[in-house]
Amino acid sequence: MAKGIMYIDGQRVPFDGEPNVLSVIRKAGIEMPTFCYYSDLSVYGACRMCVVEDERGKIDTSCSMQPRDGLKIRTNTARLLKHRRMILELMLASHNCNCAICEKSGSCHLQELALQFGVRRVRFADNREVGAFDDSSPAVVRDPSKCILCGDCVRVCEESIGMGIIDFAKRGYNMQVMPAFGRKLSETNCISCGQCSAVCPTGAITVYNQIGPAWRAIHDPSKRVVVQIAPAVRVAVGEAFGLGQGANVLYQLVSALKCMGVDEVYDTIFGADLTTIEESNEFLQRVKNGGPFPMFTSCCPAWVKYLENENPKYLRNISTCKSPMEMFGALVKQKYKEKDAEDGRTTFHIALMPCTAKKMEAARPQFKDENGNPDVDLVLTTQEVIDMIKESGIQLGEMEYESPDLPFGLGSGSAMIYGTTGGVAEAVARHCLPDKSKNTLRELEFSPLRGEDSIREATLQVGDLEVRIAVVHGLINAQKLLKEIEEGRAMYHLIEVMTCVGGCVGGAGQPYGRKAIKDQRREGLYQADRSAPFKRAEYNPGATSLLESMDEHTKHHLLHVSYLDN
Amino acid sequence: MSRLDIKSPSKAQTVVDNLYRDVERRIAASPPGLCPVDMNLSFLQLCHAQSCGKCVPCRIGLGQLSKLMAQVLDGTGTMETINIIEKTARTIVNTADCAIGRDAARLVVDGLEGFRDDYEEHVKHHRCLAALQNPVPCVSLCPAGVDIPGYMALVGEGRYADAVRLIRKDNPMPVACAYICEHPCEARCRRNMIDDAINIRGLKRYAVDHAGVVPNPENAPSTGKKVAIIGGGPSGLSCAYYLSLMGHKVTIYEERDKLGGMLRYGIPAYRFPRQKLDEEIASILSTGIEVHTGITVGRDITFDKLQRDYDCLYIAIGAHQDKKTGIPGEDSKNVMSAVEMLRAIGDEKMPDFTGKKVVVIGGGNVAMDVTRSAIRLGADKVTCVYRRRIEDMTALPDEISGALAEGAELMTLAAPVRIEADDNGVASALWVQPQLIGESDKAGRPRPNKAALDEVRVPADIIVVAIGQGIEIQGFTQAGVPIKRGTFVADSATSVGDMDNVFAGGDCVTGPATAIRAIAAGKVAAANIDEHLGFHHEIRVDVEVPAPKLNNRPPHGRINTTEREACERKHDFEDIECGLTEEGACTEASRCLRCDHFGYGIFKGGRIEKW
User: Fold this and answer.
1) Peptide bond before A407: cis, by omega within 30 degrees of 0?
2) pTM score of the predicted model
3) What CATH number corresponds to the domain at position A241?
């Protein structure tokens, strides 16, 4: 790791292990513009916005430049600013500039930088041939006319998710990003994780927007709109309203939703407690039966979809538990059956999720009733909820605090941390470990179940068995782990997998954010856990009494699912 | 799928590789007079096809440049379009990720710097500054404008004397050019588009070798005008020849003992046999030219006197002054200049290098002449020392390979620093500083830089400095002949400033150049002197050029001349080249595409029958 001092615009800036000059520049407090640079993806060097000039007047991109002791660079010379403006103008010349009606308007990075650099005209004509609009995916929409070919989506899909669903096709001026053979996304093995849309700087890949149907349901008097709120949503919504990064704004959010016309607001953590208990029981049962191991968590729909599409032999290893959202959905529909019959309304269940794959999950046949009605009628991402609150003119910070409705408005601290990598495994561990003292919690807090490493492992003593647990985030790392298991180099009893890096706080449905913001959100969840009145799923009175009231058949019907016989 | 595979080109790739070679040849054959903006755009589009599409400046920028340049060409562009082209191109040059984008845009920037006026002409007047003609490539590139397709056809028909007469219409020294011309005519030969340029010089040599004695045309009636020509080299002789034909009385003043200039005192006999040179000079003089050899103007006779005695003067003194390296020890004994050495050989005073170690400093054609002559003079070892690399030498590649074949050593990347002499002041070694090749200069030639290596001693008995020649200007400056950067100043009509009856041309105006450029200057001077004297004599020839045949058009190898074996030729000053055979000449002549007839050449810019 290189160490030394660089001179950036005359300032002395020490560096120590930064992978490139760009990182050092940003460390020095200069917001170098980029389109194609992400610290956790490979360097691509395509957008050329981060050019810097050395003492000899040579120009090169800082993302691909190694820091060197004594290196003197300038970031804002007349030439550099001129070139950046020209590059932006060239990009805009190959971009559908219908900004006012663009999904990404207001959060588009191209728009932002064009504004920042004062590009007010485009002197070039756009006569590209653009690929077909693709709204075949339940999670994301591709509009190639807005693609600036930065390759962020290509690299995140390949390097972070390990799917390689989209790639560059054609060359030179005709280059485009598309799935192989120009297929639609629905014709590929895409798992709907939506990370492509999360990194897309423009409106070329956006989340499938369902705000319209949501409003229609809310404004339809014949519909009883019941909402559940996932853990990661509450620590991200506030960002858009200046309430701080990682701030837990659940109570204001409940209030806002009520103002907007939602009938009932519940908390997904109730469902998460059910999942913890059911999944722990299943795990202990497997321990008793001697397998099959490893048991995979089932909360992440993109992960389940990955196994289904590319590695079906592991489907039997997935926990039979539905995800918290789907457990919740089934419960809601069950609970309101009678009431619907009484007042003649139909219950319309909306889940607020940090995730685009949840849109895909909600539409799965396994989660529909005998009439084909889904348990979760609609999934809105955090960003869509933010947009709806803004559309309503609601100042979230001004909202009164209001707690979620009962009986499904309560949950344990262990359910709160479902929203971050390691949370599900920790919740299960808290539930399974016989020592219910605070010491266990402390021990778990400092165990490898928490942390940022992409693959973490922990060993816990449960009865006679030394249980080996692995926690993985970033789907490509799960693929690596599977390979190690197949090659006999690793063995685990329980593996938690989250497709997105960081877990649900880094989900594609969240507002755009760099890693630091995701870290804040994770902290917000741990804080919510700490301030929760009870930390373990089995202490959730509503959840335990509900489970006690159910016979095995009902439990199986409402809370479990098999992806095998499909 | 195997882990690794041996790469073998696909059929498509093989064909594409051939296409690349075709394109290279086609570009080589670009005829003069094309629209530079159009060519610039075409190159740009070629470059854009190479773009991978990754980075913004190359992917989008090159495409946008193409569109803007097309606007300039189709007349829809404005001055602002040119401005945007320049800005865009500069951004691409500075920000593209690799050479594909950077250097493609550099072509556009270079174009804007080189022919911005042409861009502006397109925008303002919807037209191109380039010539509206599509001249015959070889003819237009021959400085003397020799009717090349014409004599190709004549050689093909075996009419060698007619070929010589046709050549003499524009160039009175066909023999000299047949042996030593650098043949710029071949550079853009349209035949390049099919396979390779015609061996024009080889065919000319066949013609002159087989034409026998070809009498000159009759002189026009005497005009009574007198012209003095200072310098009996190719330029002076050419001027004298045409002026004589026009009926003027011509007198040549030559400083050396014999006529021929650099053809005799620069070019060694193994490249141009002396008998051939003497014959050609005799033929020119037979038009009635008076010659005074051993006369140095400025010393034996003043310039003013000549100006008084003659109606017109033509200065064609060449470039015979040796340049010095300026390194310490250059004045040691046995250190000589190339001019000195070749001059002695020209006067047949052969130095004896038997058993000597000879070191030659320089990398041009003269350095090669000196090197190869030194070998023939019996040197034990001849080392040519040059500051840059072989590919940077200005000598023709054939000259370098010829010297190497004859056993010369090339010591490249070695800059002379001093000459070591023994106690008697006799040179004993050349010390050189090893060099590292560096960045290119503005002309695109890489500069040598001092390498981090110690100086090297090159033992030498004889050191010959061949780093270029200058002009001997004494005797002319006082008379008021204008001088700039060491050469006389004359315009494209060879007129010298406000000196009414003085003309100048050849190496003394251009600096050391080629024989054909000197000959062309002589021709131009003759025409303008004739006009100046109040006449308008026409030079024409009554040779009928054969009608074109459906010549050999499928790709066909170029028939090259061969050389005598190196081990044999290196011992004598006899001609090293073996001319074409009759069969070879006939076949080669049939490769000519007759651009004087096919293409635009038949219409405008084709045959010039008189001047």
Assistant:
1) yes
2) 0.82
3) 3.40.50.1780
